[in-house]
Amino acid sequence: MRGFGSTLGLYRPGAGLLYRLPLAPKAAASLGCATAVVGWGSLPTTSTVLVLALAGLLIGARQSVLQTARMLLPAAPVLGILALYQGFSQGWVQAFVVVGGIAGCLLAARSVTLTTPLQVLLDGTASLARPFRRLGADPERFALALSIMLRSIPYLAGLFVDVREAARARGLERSPRVAVTPLVLGAVAYAHRTGEALAARGLGEHDDEEDDRGQDHGSVVG
Amino acid sequence: MQPTEKTSPGPVTDGRPSSRKRWDTTDLSLVAVFAALIAALAIVPGIPVGPLGVPITLQTLGVMLAGAVLGPGRGTAAVLLYLAAGLIGLPVFSGFSGGFGVLAGPSAGYLIAFPPAALVAGLLARAVLRSATRFRTVLLFLACVVASLSTIHPLGVAGLMVNAELSLRDAVLVDAAYLPGDVVKNVIAALLAVSVHRAFPRLLARPRA
What we know:
By secondary structure, chain A is mainly α.
């Protein structure tokens, strides 16, 4: 858990065609792979997606075979079991179609996050909300919410570790309620503090909504 | 200790077609922090269960909590923000590393079910908190159970059938492996929600005129 901050650094600087490509085509290709595999699961689809994803990573992003294989490690247990299940029940071609398709989609998605800096990724996401502005969407607030979320994950993960250690010290580590209650209360209190800090800076607030808010700070959980 | 007074839910219409009240910055950061909370609970190593090893994690606990603590609107928004972060590739989903790839994975149905689950849990929880004064924990537990049985399990089974190409019978069997864990998580969600609403009574209070 403590090491989570490092895993957020998905981007690895490098050279290659995929690094020079803008985000939109890369994201569209990745989404296209997932759509194709879900919509038209067949041998040609799976083969095409796998070839595209592998070519993107090996040639477009100049990754080694080992680096590429390592990207599938987190999903390997599920994929392995699924391959065995499909292999024995429907035959090994079907196993390849199902498991290969999922693996290809995961690799395609990873090739996008690998070659796109986080900030570009976040900006691109916020700009997706732009066409919906007419419907009441607010790209700035969306981007703000996204960055508050990312900033809060390390805080909450650290809080979770602290709370767990405190519970263990009292011999209560087996009670999930004891382990999670201070985490959730802490999260709500943290959200209130963040909201007040934002309001104090006039961020994320609507212009016509400036109102005097009484300051009643204080740590809610000791 | 109560945080600041919320903005008055007066009619703030800035040319928006909907009549719902604008969220203030506290609402915005509650949504963002709960999305982070779901992520933090999801990345705690899960316990792989069942023949497909879709892991039992506290992820669904976070989803239920978002609904039961924040109510339908903000709860659903928190879950949607969490999904958006995962879909653009941030490693906030359990097991898989995120990105559009999860849409093709066996647990896609569960992920798609999260926003409606938070919506149903939120609607029921708000009704419970505003009308019931006794047996709140039990009623909130039932609200979570209804939400998970009406959304997460049917859509999860559908996802297993479409993406992992399981037969209906096998998909239901795989899904059933999660039911006991789900009941436990719903109990925890109800207990936690009651604690949170006791500490922060204004979170889901009836808007005063």
